[in-house]
Amino acid sequence: MAVVKELLRSEADGTISFGNHKLEQKAKVEDYEHAGDLLKVKTFREITKLEKNGMFLYESVPGTSVVGFAERENGVEFTVEGDEDAQITIGLTDDTEYEVFVGGRSIGTMKTGLGGKLSLGVELEAAGEVPVKVKQV
């Protein structure tokens, strides 16, 4: 997997890819239309953030590159790459329990609060790219 040079792009399968964890300077793309929604991404080596229709959707510290990001009725899935281990926060449904899979293995269930945010750590430093799946229980 490589960084997303366009910063944000639509894929043929309906997913999106975004972020560039190699950038030294902040970069952003605003008002990107995808499947009837307006997306905004801000990214560089320290942080990657994605919003949909002005609402929080994804954030990683430090920055990451994400491919195949798909929102499903019962969660999200994507593949993430970075140079360092990352703390990832995803915007989901308020007060809902999810099972989280990292690298194909379940790391357990987590519950979102009133803000609908779910945070997880992903070890990327030695792994390269890691698939992540968050599914409503």
Mean pLDDT: 95
CATH class: Mainly Beta
Q: How much helical structure, as a percent, in the residues?
A: under 10%
What is the first-to-last residue Cα distance?
A: 30 Å
**Which of globular, elongated, flat, extended, rod-shaped describes the shape?**
globular
The order of strands across the largest sheet is: 1-2-7-8-13-10-11
Report the portion of residues in β strands.
Answer: over 45%
Number of domains: 1
Largest sheet: 7 strands, antiparallel
Order of helices and strands: EEEEEEEEEEEEE
In total, the number of strands is: 13
Offer a quick outline of the entry:
This protein has strands at 8-10, 16-18, 27-34, 37-44, 47-52, 55-61, 65-72, 75-81, 86-91, 97-102, 105-111, 117-122, 129-136. It has 137 residues and is mostly beta strands.
Topology overview:
Blueprint: E1 8-10, E2 16-18, E3 27-34, E4 37-44, E5 47-52, E6 55-61, E7 65-72, E8 75-81, E9 86-91, E10 97-102, E11 105-111, E12 117-122, E13 129-136
Antiparallel strand pairs: 1-2, 2-7, 3-4, 4-5, 5-6, 6-9, 7-8, 8-13, 9-12, 10-11, 10-13
Task: List key phrases describing it.
13 strands, 7-stranded antiparallel beta sheet, Chondroitinase Ac, Chain A, domain 3, 137 residues
Please explain how this structure is put together.
With 137 residues, this protein is mainly beta. It has a single domain, classed as Chondroitinase Ac, Chain A, domain 3, CATH 2.60.220. Helix content is 0%, strand content 61%. The chain is built from no helices and 13 strands. The protein has strands at 8-10, 16-18, 27-34, 37-44, 47-52, 55-61, 65-72, 75-81, 86-91, 97-102, 105-111, 117-122, 129-136. The strands form two sheets. Strands 1-2-7-8-13-10-11 form a seven-stranded antiparallel sheet, with no helix packed on it. The protein has a six-stranded antiparallel sheet with strand order 3-4-5-6-9-12, with no helix packed on it. 30% of the residues are buried.
